[in-house]
Design brief:
The structure is a single chain. The protein is an alpha+beta fold. The chain has 20 helices and seven strands. The chain folds into two domains: 390 residues, Na+/H+ antiporter like fold (Up-down Bundle); 80 residues, Alpha-Beta Plaits, CATH 3.30.70.1450. The chain is 62% helix and 7% strand. The strands form two sheets. Strands 5-4-6-3-7 form a five-stranded antiparallel sheet, covered by helices on one side.
Length: 496
Amino acid sequence: MLQAINPFLVTGLLFFMSLVAGALSEKIKVPALILFLGIGMLAGVDGPGGLNFSDANAANSVGTFALAFILFAGGFQTKWSDIKPIVTQGVVLSTLGVLLTAVVMAIPIAFLPMFTYKDAFLLGAIVSSTDAAAVFSILRTQKVGVRGALKPLLEFESGSNDPMAVFLTITAMTWLTSPDVPVDELAVNFVVQMVAGGVMGYLMGKFSCWAIQRLHVVNEALYPVWGISIVMATFGITETVYGNGYLAVYVCGIVMGGGDFLYKYSLQRFHDGFAWLMQIIMFLVLGLLVTPSEVVNFPVMSMGLLISFCLMFIARPVAVFAGMIFSRFNWREKLFVAWTGLRGAVPIILATYPLTAGHPQAKYMFNVIFFVVLTSVMIQGKTLAWFAKFLGIDEAVREAKTWTLNFDITPASGTDETYELDLTDESAVVGKAVKDLRFPDGVTILLINRGDKYMIPKGGTVLEQDDTLLLFGDRAKLPDVVKKLSERAENDGKES
């Protein structure tokens, strides 16, 4: 007689199926998050898995924990030099834009007989944030990029607007449960949360860089433990002082991404992988929480389509064009920003707040929000690459190189780092031998990627068009070398 299903076996199978789904998403051009949710639903009570999971509090806790690490990883991968030109515009979109989205969404919903105006604002707040991971996962799988400052703007806005959406949702819940709370008190609470979140994130980021540089852990493998503790401590301390923990971990990640400390790139790779694990766990749990038979019915689907239409064609465009009215972006770029308002895991997580609070229409709201997310990803996601090409703002995606050498910041590496540079047909050094380049002492070309081959350069090696060079040397000297190699060409290089 077979024993009861082993939870280790179930968890292992779900993770394995998610990995397969992630690889499959590249081929079938479907966002991985949809497949992760689908696996969770198949494992749930209505699927062949038959797992009965209905604990909204547990799902909310898992979502909070996972989102903190996802936001930190997003900030860690963000380069300040990339977002500096658009940071003001990004902050406007991630605060005022989110608020406008919630308010504009609430107006038509408030006229529906089944919702009060407070319920309408709650629904608007829940769907007000966008999902950067979904946007760039779709663009990557469809081999389409966006040019100029659009990419950093979309990344920054999508990564930084979650704290505002969380605040608005909690505020709406407070408004529902405590109707006598004065508006000025809510406004003061908003300022305190955002200021405390930003300041604590900055201070924790600076402290973490300083501490890692001086805390010489003997075993390199323990640095990821340090990385996990940074995220948890930053979130916990900030929430303790009534700040916004989500904003704090995101800012902490940006500060650390721009800092120098031991094993920085190893820690970045760890957090990138850990964030993917968190996404898989989060989507699986949310998929398990959904009962598909309750989502696929006329009341939920009709309401979901109505909200999706208002969100995609009214609320998001109004918020974007109002928030970008004084920006230097043209109308085509603004239109694309409006269309990239894909909804992802955050609205589903926020939809668990009414469930945990015992709102009488919480389950209906949750199912509607789930349907809205699916609709947003499938409709906007499938047309994103086409729309970028239609507007003429697309550019070819540069394939990342897989180098056979990896370097990290270690106690012995000093100020040395690597830099990856593409040579175009206009580069002044194309056709020249390596020995004729006259690099300064301490800077050299480690590897040359040419087509599918990697070569160790020698003095007589001649550089060719479309070569990718892996430079290594003192970071103070590398910019001059890069400038020389990129002369009369657009620099498509990036730090690695």
